[in-house]
């Protein structure tokens, strides 16, 4: 089995291969994130404590944290899961992964040094690997160089020297500083806030105008409805009065003609 051991303090890592299974028994039946004493690996490892961070089996399938088994399983994985990188948005896929328990079928085991022992490990703890890239974020650059808010961060950016080409001068590359506060960014922020306030005022004015128009329209409709009701009521009243007057006139005519006819019948006739 191969052991890929890293030392975060120096940034160095080393791959060692161990054939003797007796030395590796201390890792068997241990889970990921557990700490193991490395005294069984040799005299130079006395006092070292290693933490298991992962590994691959002999077929190349990676270990997955949280899968409590030492065998292989097929899991439906999506974005955010370890051992999977989605190719399309919202894609899910069933992948074969290995459980988080170490056994003899492992090909490579990834470890980090948690506690350093008495002796130095050649190629691991006795050398320092410089970081290839410096910090990009403005706050992290300030923290690295102990700068204040008034100091210019751009002067302290770590430059990276590129390999020189034939017949040309060596070039340096500077990363773009993220979250850097400048007068331009402040001006953009003020403009963004002003536009937001302008949109809010415009939205309120349009809402007030719409409410006013809607109220006016409702009042006009109500006035038309009331006028229509009054008009129909006046027409019906005029018709009722006309009908009643005609009925009264007809009754009076009949009453006056009846007695006159009776008196004419009983009146004495005069001889000429």
TrEMBL record:
One of its GO terms (molecular function) is structural constituent of ribosome. GO terms for biological process: translation. PROSITE patterns: RIBOSOMAL_S6E (PS00578). One of its GO terms (cellular component) is ribosome. Gene3D superfamilies: 1.20.5.2650. Keywords: Ribonucleoprotein, Ribosomal protein. Transmembrane segments: none annotated. SMART domains: Ribosomal_S6e (SM01405). The keyword Ligase does not apply. InterPro entries: Ribosomal_eS6, Ribosomal_eS6-like, Ribosomal_eS6_CS. Belongs to the eukaryotic ribosomal protein eS6 family. This is 40S ribosomal protein S6. It comes from Globodera rostochiensis (Golden nematode worm).
């Amino acid at each position: 089995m191969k052991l890929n051991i890293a030392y975060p303090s120096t940034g160095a890592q080393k791959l060692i291969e161990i054939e003797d299974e007796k030395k590796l028994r201390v890792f068997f039946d241990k889970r990921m994130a557990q700490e193991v004493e490395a005294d069984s690996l040799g005299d130079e490892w006395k006092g070292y404590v290693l933490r298991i961070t992962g590994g691959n089996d002999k077929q190349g399938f990676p270990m997955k944290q949280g899968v409590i088994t030492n065998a292989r399983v097929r899991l439906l994985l999506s974005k955010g899961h370890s051992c999977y990188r989605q190719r399309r948005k919202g894609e899910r896929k069933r992948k074969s992964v290995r459980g988080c328990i170490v056994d003899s079928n492992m090909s490579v085991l990834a470890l980090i040094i948690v506690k350093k022992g008495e002796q130095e490990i050649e190629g691991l703890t006795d050398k320092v690997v410089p970081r290839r890239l410096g910090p990009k974020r403005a706050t992290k650059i300030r923290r690295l160089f102990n700068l204040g808010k008034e100091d210019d961060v751009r002067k302290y950016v770590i430059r990276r020297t590129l390999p020189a080409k034939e017949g040309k001068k060596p070039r340096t590359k500077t990363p773009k500083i993220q979250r850097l506060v400048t007068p331009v960014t402040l001006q953009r922020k003020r403009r963004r806030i002003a536009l937001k306030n302008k949109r809010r005022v415009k939205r309120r004015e349009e809402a007030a105008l719409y409410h006013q128009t809607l109220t006016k329209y409702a009042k006009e409709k109500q006035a038309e409805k009331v006028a229509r009701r009054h008009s129909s009521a006046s027409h019906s009243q005029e018709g009722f009065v006309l009908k009643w007057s005609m009925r009264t006139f007809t009754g009076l005519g009949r009453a006056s003609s009846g007695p006159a006819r009776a008196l004419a019948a009983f009146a004495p006739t005069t001889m000429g």
